[in-house]
Amino acid sequence: MNFEHLLSVKDLEKSTLKALIAQAIDLKKNPQKYQQALAGKSIAMIFEKPSLRTRVSFDVGIQKMGGHAVYLDQQNGAFGKRESVKDFAQNLSCWVDGIVARVFSQQSLIELAEYGSVPVVNALSDLYHPCQALADFQALTEQFGDVQGRTLAYVGDGNNVTHSLMLTAAILGVNMVIVTPPGHGVDGQVVVDSQKLCEKSGATLTISNDVSALKGVDAIYADTWISMGDETPFERIAEKFMPYQVNRQMMTDSGAQYFMHCQPAHREEEVTADVLDGDQSIILQQAENRMHAQNAVLLALLK
What we know:
This protein is of the alpha/beta class. It is 43% helix and 14% strand.
């Protein structure tokens, strides 16, 4: 595996993605092998946005491998305002071995990587959520074995999670079906990037506003209808999105074996409680895998 940062999965080769997933699975099965893998390493964790899974999974994961995590919130002012991102990156690079950042703007990550001298990991930005996608495809690999040729569907609002799922699927040869309400589709450049990657892997990308496009998929993935910080009244959101709610009927009609969600989830909104809490749901497997997938990334970057 040869990469300097993880800003987006689109920068990774198929062999690297598969190796990261294999490493994550081994970390999960054999944690004792890695108890000192990051001994003596310190990692700064920058959080502009609230978090449960990302913060805890990185913090605990680093500790489990003998490393030290330094949590930095924005109590001293917005990132890049009180102090430039350049100065932030250069100063942090004097002390830590890596930077994990959950930010509002992808540009902040680009600048951290450009001006710092240590690896940078995207823990979520406005455009991408690569660590989530790695954990998700680890879960699919655990369920199916080889995921190539399988079909994953995403239903709901096109967002950063959708983008990373699309790119990862395209690289790994997984067919992707995106179903969104009109006006809530995915970023056009990400579509172009994914299509190019599909040409290389042989995967297909289907983008639709019609839930009938879900027929024959292996798994259905949903995310919250309202992104963090969006103040649109729920009634207006529900009017558009309720026809796209993942429920028992959708699971049956599509033939999907598994339901996936990056969480936080809202029962009876984007998904019904019987699906979210049911036997087909693998949401806690995804959540657990966040730690293992992220640890695999840190191992690869910090060697």
